[in-house]
Write a structure and sequence with these properties.
Number of strands: 8
Strand content: over 45%
Distance between the termini: 54 Å
Shape: globular
Largest sheet: 8 strands, antiparallel, barrel
Helix content: 10-25%
Strand order of the largest sheet: 1-2-3-4-5-6-7-8
Order of helices and strands: HEEEEEEEE
Structural class: alpha+beta
């Protein structure tokens, strides 16, 4: 009898863990433009190949419909620019990856990202040739 109870408890525990694992995978893949909404603080560090280091901090505000804005402080090879405005468009895929286009500072910048930490964090990297950087956005 004790062995049968132990087996039943084991099977119930295993099935519960399996179901919880599947639920978390479904929730993790449940992303859309609406997954990015509100205000995020962010920082980036990297290099522009052949030019020098780049570091950025700022605030990103998203509307949940694929549009947003940023205000940045940029250190580009030691030259500092403060209060630099950018307009942003973004597209979020169901698997929580996406693309992000920033326009400002006289240029257009293309990026790829992944949404992480239960939709509280965005990890982004430029897709422009010559840019080597990583950015971390945290929901405020």
């Amino acid at each position: 009898m004790k062995r049968a109870i132990t087996s039943v408890v084991f099977v119930i525990s295993f099935v519960s863990l399996l179901v919880l694992g599947l639920v978390s995978r479904v929730q993790a893949g449940d992303c859309s433009n609406a997954s990015i909404k509100g205000t995020y603080g962010f920082s980036c560090e990297g290099t522009v190949v052949g030019v020098g280091p780049i570091a950025v901090i700022g605030v990103f505000t998203a509307d949940g419909n694929g549009n947003g804005s940023e205000v940045e402080t940029i250190s580009f090879n030691g030259d500092i620019s403060q209060g630099v405005p950018f307009t942003v468009t973004y597209t979020v895929n169901a698997d929580c990856t996406g693309s992000f286009v920033s326009t400002g500072f006289g240029s257009v910048f293309h990026n790829d990202f992944v949404i992480d930490d239960n939709k509280k964090e965005i990890r982004l990297t430029p897709t422009e040739s010559g840019f080597v950087a990583v950015c971390l956005y945290r929901k405020q």
